[in-house]
Write a structure and sequence with these properties.
The chain is an all-alpha fold. Helix content is 55%, strand content 0%.
Length: 130
């Protein structure tokens, strides 16, 4: 006896669109301009991020939480912590890694949205818009 399998065909556009929307991203309409997909953080924003994130706080997201979000291991975070003894910015290292990932700044901004750092989200929105 043969088994019959019914395939439910899903419109790939609908699936992809709903997947993106669940993850906070939206498809572009035909003919709309491409968003700014830059992955480089300007020196000005880099310095501001260092000022805001290098200060460890139990009340707000700091560089350690961003590092975890970008996939750093506990050992890598400890290494970055040890570099502070030599007056190196852990945030600087994290931004360097982010830039090598070639991800758009919108991705970094989205991480800060999840981390509820509205001050940094606003700064990155200005950077993305420029």
């Amino acid at each position: 006896m043969h088994q019959v399998f019914l395939l439910h065909l899903v419109d790939p556009y609908d699936f992809f669109s709903s997947f993106l929307q669940k993850n906070g991203r939206y498809l572009l309409e035909y003919g709309s301009p491409l968003p700014n997909l830059q992955s480089k953080v300007s020196d000005t924003v880099r310095c501001e991020l260092m000022k805001l994130l290098d200060v460890e706080s139990q009340y707000t997201c700091d560089w350690k939480i961003l590092a975890e979000r970008l996939g750093a291991t506990t050992e890598e975070i400890r290494f970055l912590q040890s570099r502070k003894d030599y007056h190196e910015s852990p945030t600087q290292h994290i931004i360097n890694v982010f830039e090598t990932m070639k991800m758009p700044l919108t991705s970094l901004r989205d991480d800060f949205i999840v981390l509820e750092r509205d001050d940094i989200v606003q700064m990155l929105n200005l950077e993305i818009g420029s």
